[in-house]
Design goal:
With 271 residues, the protein is α+β, with helices and mostly antiparallel strands. It folds into 2 domains: 4-130, Alpha-Beta Barrel (N-terminal domain of MutM-like DNA repair proteins); 143-262, Helicase, Ruva Protein, domain 3 (Orthogonal Bundle). Helix content is 28%, strand content 21%. The chain is built from 7 helices and 10 strands. It has helices at 4-17, 40-47, 124-130, 143-152, 157-162, 172-182, 197-216; strands at 23-27, 52-58, 61-66, 71-75, 80-85, 95-101, 106-111, 117-121, 247-251, 254-258. Strands 1-6-7-5 form a 4-stranded antiparallel beta sheet, covered by helices on one side. A 4-stranded antiparallel beta sheet has the order 2-3-4-8, with helices on both faces. Helix 4 (143-152) packs across helix 7 (197-216) and helix 6 packs across helix 7 (197-216). The chain binds zinc ion (ZN). Zinc ion binds at residues 239, 241-242, 244, 259, 261-262.
Length: 271
């Protein structure tokens, strides 16, 4: 499922392929259940003869500004991605929205499982507010927000990291990686985590470090560093740090992976 690093890569892909070109046509034929508050016909009429000027990202949402000051919004759901192509033989299999440019190329939004969302909105900041999205995990999160959770939070650390109203951008996979890096059990709750400055800093630093590293690797797990859990995120695989078997548990309705050998008895930080 696309999380912040994946969506950042989609943003860069769009930036490098699809900006400043006139939109000749739109095919939104297979997008109906993914369109939010706009009909297929409306979307087509409002995009035709426009161009995309710039993009912006908040958490897992991507926004592309049109030259009429509206923004096209994408959420990639479980399986969404973009493909920019010229020949129809290169067209991906599950295209929900296709934007044809006057240069003969098309940008397709593909989503096999039809989850995700496409919409036209007036302004990203307002959208973020209306959806109650928390600060972007990479650009806007502060140490204070982490400290507040450690002082007053009641939910498990994994639920906190994945809660889009608390922090926007992290999902199941990257929250496991962050917890692996800080050696915390996914089910740990405050006050067992503690709230010392060291823990706040560790969490804050590792959220950013994990996301930046993933983006620099193009969000391709095979290119992640050896000390990352993600390439070994499978039950029974060896922990890249201590060699013990990676375990899985259900946590907040999702399967979480962690290494029991890298935690102490209380799930606290090891030095
Ligand atoms: Zn380990």
């Amino acid at each position: 499922m696309p999380e912040l690093p994946d969506v950042e890569i989609f943003k860069r892909y769009m930036d490098s392929t699809s900006l400043h070109q006139s939109i000749q046509d739109i095919d939104a034929g297979d997008s109906e259940d993914m369109l939010a508050e706009i009909s297929r016909r409306d979307l087509k009429n409002r995009l035709k003869n426009r161009s995309l000027l710039k993009t912006s990202r908040h958490g897992k949402h991507l926004f592309a500004k049109l030259d009429n000051d509206q923004w096209l919004m994408f959420h990639f759901g479980m399986t969404g991605f973009f493909k920019y192509y010229k020949r129809s033989s290169q067209k991906p299999e599950h295209v929900r929205l296709r934007i044809d440019f006057t240069n003969g190329y098309s940008l397709a939004f593909d989503s096999r499982r039809r989850l995700g969302e496409i919409s036209l909105i007036d302004e990203p900041k307002q959208f973020v507010q209306d959806r109650n999205l928390g600060p972007d995990a990479l650009k806007d999160l502060t140490k204070q927000q982490i400290e507040d959770y450690l002082m007053n939070g009641r939910e498990m650390i994994k639920s906190f990291l994945m809660n889009q109203e608390k922090i926007a951008g992290l999902g199941n996979i990257y929250s496991d990686e962050i917890l692996f890096q800080v050696r915390l059990h996914p089910r740990t709750k405050p006050p067992d985590i503690g709230s010392s400055g060291v823990i706040v800093k560790e969490l804050y630093t590792n959220i950013r470090k994990v996301l930046k590293t993933a983006i620099n690797a193009g969000a391709v797990p095979e290119k992640f560093p050896d000390h990352f859990l993600i390439p070994n995120r499978e039950k029974g695989r060896q922990c890249p740090r201590c060699g013990e078997s990676v375990e899985s548990i259900k946590c907040a309705g999702r399967t979480s992976y962690y290494c029991p050998g890298c935690l102490n008895a209380h799930g606290e930080l090891l030095s």
